[in-house]
Amino acid sequence: MNVPRPAFDPAVLPAGGAAADDSHQHVRFGDGLALECGAVLDELVVAYRTYGRLDADRANAILVCHALTGDQYVAEPHPLTGKPGWWSNLVGPGLPIDTDRFFVICANVLGGCMGSTGPRSTRPDGTIWGTDFPPVTIRDMVDAQARLIDHLGIDRLFAVIGGSMGGMQVLQWAARYPERVFAALPIATAAQHSAQNIAFNEVSRQAIAADPDFHAGHYRDRGTIPARGLGVARMMAHITYLSEEALTRKFGRRLQSAPASPAAGGGAGLFGEMFEVESYLRHQGSSFVRRFDANSYLTVTRAMDYFDLARDHDGDLASAFAGTFTRFCVVSFSSDWLFPTAQSRAIARALNRAAANVSFVEIDTDKGHDAFLLDEPDMHRTVAGFLDGAAIHAGLRPAPPGVAAPGPRGKAP
Amino acid sequence: MNVPRPAFDPAVLPAGGAAADDSHQHVRFGDGLALECGAVLDELVVAYRTYGRLDADRANAILVCHALTGDQYVAEPHPLTGKPGWWSNLVGPGLPIDTDRFFVICANVLGGCMGSTGPRSTRPDGTIWGTDFPPVTIRDMVDAQARLIDHLGIDRLFAVIGGSMGGMQVLQWAARYPERVFAALPIATAAQHSAQNIAFNEVSRQAIAADPDFHAGHYRDRGTIPARGLGVARMMAHITYLSEEALTRKFGRRLQSAPASPAAGGGAGLFGEMFEVESYLRHQGSSFVRRFDANSYLTVTRAMDYFDLARDHDGDLASAFAGTFTRFCVVSFSSDWLFPTAQSRAIARALNRAAANVSFVEIDTDKGHDAFLLDEPDMHRTVAGFLDGAAIHAGLRPAPPGVAAPGPRGKAP
Lengths: 413, 413
Prior knowledge:
Distance between the termini of chain A: 52 Å
Strand order of the largest sheet of chain A: 1-4-8-5-9-10-11-12
Oligomer: homodimer
Order of helices and strands of chain A: EEEEEEEEHEHEHHHHHEHEH
């Protein structure tokens, strides 16, 4: 029988996971932050990166909000993996989010593991928060970002943009600080997490909790990390980021160093790693555990699960945006089954009911939820066009020649 | 922070998992079985159950094939859990598979853990196979069933029926022993496992392998079982058996013993088990590990992944059924995303190309893949009607009055 080898060997991993340190550019707020759960953080650290130059009138700032496993390194190599920034195909000089024109800000979310206050931060008493870190919500993440925006002396953001959990933050920004958001681009997201998504997150949390190296969250004290549990969680989540079509196109049933027929080679085809999609997923899991912290994964997935913007407004999503002057561009992807188009359409409908200025675009692609991170020309044209139009309304200086792009090709919600 | 407790406590579980013993009704074949991988089992045990009475002419036998985690206890309480048979709503006196009329047979699959030869069986040298058990395929499972059918003195089965992996066996039966299958009902299945399904299975295997109680498959020797890994695998798989609609309808975002808003109750809503869907999944996982063996889960999921009936026939599925006289009824469910209707339609198209007698029915339901196990009146009417019509063609004695049902309401493939 094929005995699967655990793909995630804790021995080869840095004890305690990716370093929690002050090496990340950050700002420290000594007056702390009051959380939605009622707890108060005595001190708040927000790690962030910026790209481009802030205009004299401070009107050209774009806040990028990252997703569950993202970070502030949007348009530059990741300090731990050396890989290009997670949105380096969208953010940069001459790109749809043009850093020759806009001042782009991205902060590691509250509860994250790349320098912002989170489970790996130090408490006032000098110990590590670990599992004692209070639960945070999307609203708390946005409040922490608002402190950063204050610190940067920016009253109003020209735009807030993000995909997946980043899109939840965009919606929360527009609902909580409408006067501070001129334009909002929630991409591949939802106004509330679905039962199916909560279910997948719960399996991820169970996979982490089932790893004996988790030590009820105190793995740092034991000099280990729950690499196997976190790796399994990532493998499963990664399937939900793709589509059946994309998986079939990328891998199909292709074998890797194994005969095509199990009958051939005395069953060699029945042993070990055989389908390409299997080794691909194992790689996804093992590379992930090198850069992400398990307690942050638990904290941030919980924040996604709690997110329900309608619940916070008497069950009516429209009232979350009542009287808003923000210009919205809602984007979804046809093959995204984690955040299906229907959920984006529900956002657009609520914005219509709130008499908001909204365009809705469903991008036709077979790449699934992952599409928001990939080179999707239609999405890039949509973002560039929407920002270009909004910039005119905002009275920003026009785009440098050659950057102009066609406007969003919207469908009626 | 909410620290998830592992839902699966090995301490409360039987060491080595559900008992592997001879208590199950079985037949032993001393001449063994040659497997597709090239290995040969010196001895073959097939555990099975029968319902109803075999006619004098032995023409009224129906073979039921079970799915990944099913077993031979189709229409009677499960000996370990005491729960009703897994298809007791479909198989029984006066039910669509009428045991007053048909002789129903179901065997535990080769590689399973309910009495048939599998990883928990004893080798000739007296030791347990464990992870040394050779890899098996759907074809091997069908060959083992054929030995049972021979033993029962049945030349031709009136019908072979099964859902999911059971449907794979139905297709393999029709392709390998066409003269022995008068009617075939493959339900919610596919002629080859998709890349997405292989991916989900691989995550399940990794979750099991990641459990230190797995001991590379030798957990029985250590008197333990990989309960946490197997539980996580089951939780994830269970999500794929349902649909987003079904999860939303059954659970939505309902909370369990927690305030609706995380802001209320000093964040009590942010601690512990909060969404109903979470505790439901934990229950699914913990009850599963009490009855199923991890090595069997690895063996049988591999068999599903290898299944590719077209590959075994020069890439042309139609040639797998060339010249068949078997009557087919292919059934799918509209909300099944694990075995989508498109895969059943591909089977029906291949059967059409093979000039076979085939009807295809897509049942409209929001219950997902699970629907094949549930009370789906349309499916039950379809099965009853198809069997009734086939029985006339087979020259079986007519159904007792009151059992007749409307025929299948087919759609053109």
